[in-house]
Design brief:
- By secondary structure, the protein is mainly α.
- It has 10 helices and 5 strands; from the N terminus they run βααβααβααββαααα.
- The chain folds into 2 domains: 57 residues, no CATH class; 126 residues, no CATH class.
- The longest helix has 16 residues.
């Protein structure tokens, strides 16, 4: 018998078929104990037969990648520092200084798909470029968000901060207010992906 430690970080979608094989080898009772501990964020030590160990040995191990970590940090810096970010209160007050509940306005716009927000330190923040001079959502942003609807808010923010060859090297956020049609076209092209031929 060999001993193996399974941790939550080592489990990925790509490894699920192999994990199912391990489940068959270790049996239902051991599998239940493993999954319960992993779901609670802990590590599990389980004795496996040599066949089970061979299955575990085939699983890929996720290793710390400092280059990937630096790239993720740089992407986050670009997103957060590329524009001003506004709280829902700031957005609501800007759009209607007399509003009794400035948060309700942004909540409504968010639920209608007229704006997007990212989470930062536990609260939703909205990019300044999403609003016109009167503090209302740029009308065409709704169409862009429909096109990018399968993307997370962070991916949408990243796309708005990325230079695009479709926009002559400019960022979509730079042209949203002045040339929204080309931004909509760039969003469609982005979702279509590269064309080869």
């Amino acid at each position: 018998m060999h001993t193996v430690t399974l941790q939550r970080a080592a489990i990925s979608r790509e490894s699920l078929p192999d994990i199912r094989e391990i489940r068959l080898v270790v049996g239902a009772e051991a599998w239940a104990a493993i999954t319960e501990a992993v779901m609670q964020g802990g590590a599990v030590t389980q004795s496996l037969s040599s066949d089970g160990q061979a299955l575990v040995d085939r699983l890929p191990i996720r290793r710390h990648d400092p280059v990937a970590q630096r790239l993720k940090q740089r992407a986050a810096d670009v997103i957060l520092n590329g524009t001003s970010w506004l709280t829902s209160r700031e957005v609501g007050v800007r759009a209607d200084p007399a509003a009794a509940n400035p948060h309700s306005l942004t909540s409504r716009w968010l639920s209608q798909g007229r704006v997007f927000a990212i989470e930062h330190r536990g609260q939703k923040v909205f990019p300044d470029y999403a609003f016109d001079l009167l503090g209302h959502p740029v009308v065409e942003l709704r169409e862009v968000l429909k096109i990018l609807s399968g993307c997370s808010a962070l991916r949408i923010a990243s796309w708005f901060e990325s230079r695009s060859s479709r926009l002559d090297g400019r960022k979509p956020r730079e042209l949203l207010a002045s040339q929204p049609g080309v931004v909509i076209d760039a969003a469609r092209a982005h979702m279509a992906g590269p064309l080869h031929g």
